[in-house]
Structure to design on (353 residues):
């Protein structure tokens, strides 16, 4: 039993320590987390841990925290009449081996965690799906679901947000960190809109990733960060997945009045994050999810998302390979590599200890 605990003031300072889960009470479940994805999105959870509240989901102390992840866990002990040992649950977990959950709002085996400290937190992170009733689940698709489902949901909501706002009258949609999986998901969806929308999808990435991003076929133009001046100065919107304020300042100065909207999404390049140096609006995916669920109804929202998800996963199998981490020593190395941005975008990382 283990958990990876991070110093909230110095992310390089972390420990993987022994962990004994608390005894469960009436109505609670003890789950063993046996598979989760590790992506750059998890680093964003850490960087935005205080401002958005990600540290509150699995609290440790004011100085330390556990980074949330998405994956699968099995019920190993149940004191709820609605669940039995062996049921497999997909959802939002700590980077640890076990968790105690308190199911409420139970329907068809799916539920919301009703733990007291999570009641006021965004419900999209508190909802858990039972694989026996999840129509999109397949055992062979678990790795893809762990890696891409939460990221693609953000991609889907971003694409819809821009469509919902007429792309902020922009001709150019500029995606930073274009090799990141959330950016790729958005580019995939935007590319499908080009037949009816007058937009150009531009990907910004590091020199080492230009070929990979170009070969995806979703972007109309792929350029490295040192070549921003090659972007046309037509009206543009930025979708920033990197959080590199030096890139932000360069883009804002270059585009000037041609910048119609600056959407802040990711913070993976946390070393270049300087508070107050850029002007933009942070995109909080649950807000758009609530808006569309209200307008369309939950069933239509889930249907639209499922259709988009199916098309994306079929495509993603052509350009991503799965790599599995199976021990805590390698988990520590993977954490540092992800923290320092030293990962291959063509690899999807699954932790299965």
């Amino acid at each position: 039993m283990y958990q990876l605990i991070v110093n909230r003031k110095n992310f390089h300072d972390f420990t993987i320590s022994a962990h004994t889960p608390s005894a469960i009470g009436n109505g609670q479940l003890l789950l063993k987390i046996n598979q989760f994805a590790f992506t750059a999105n998890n680093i964003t959870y850490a960087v935005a841990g205080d401002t958005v509240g990600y540290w509150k989901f699995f609290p440790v102390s004011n100085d330390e925290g556990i980074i949330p992840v998405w994956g699968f866990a099995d019920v190993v002990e149940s004191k709820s009449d609605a669940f039995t040992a062996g049921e497999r649950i997909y959802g939002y977990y700590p980077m640890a081996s076990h968790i105690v959950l308190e199911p409420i709002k139970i329907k068809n085996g799916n539920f919301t965690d009703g733990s007291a400290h999570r009641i006021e937190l965004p419900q999209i992170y508190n909802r858990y799906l039972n694989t026996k009733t999840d129509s999109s689940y397949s055992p062979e698709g678990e790795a893809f679901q762990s890696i891409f489902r939460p990221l693609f949901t953000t991609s889907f909501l971003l694409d819809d947000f821009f469509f919902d706002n007429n792309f902020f009258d922009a001709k150019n949609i500029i995606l930073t960190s274009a090799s990141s999986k959330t950016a790729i998901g958005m580019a995939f969806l935007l590319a499908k809109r080009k037949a009816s929308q007058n937009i150009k999808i531009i990907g910004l990435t590091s020199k080492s990733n230009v070929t990979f991003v170009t070969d995806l076929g979703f972007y109309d133009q792929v350029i490295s960060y040192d070549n921003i001046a090659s972007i046309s100065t037509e009206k543009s919107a930025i979708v920033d997945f990197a959080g590199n304020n030096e890139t932000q300042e360069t883009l804002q100065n270059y585009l000037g009045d041609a910048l119609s909207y600056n959407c802040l999404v990711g913070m993976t390049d946390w070393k270049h994050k300087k508070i107050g140096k850029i002007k933009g609006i942070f995109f909080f995916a649950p807000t758009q999810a609530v808006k569309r669920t209200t307008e369309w109804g939950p069933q239509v929202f889930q249907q639209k998302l499922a259709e988009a998800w199916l098309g994306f996963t079929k495509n993603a199998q052509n350009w991503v390979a799965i790599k599995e981490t199976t021990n805590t020593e390698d988990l520590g190395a993977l954490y540092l590599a992800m923290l320092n941005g030293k990962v291959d975008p063509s690899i999807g990382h699954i932790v299965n200890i």
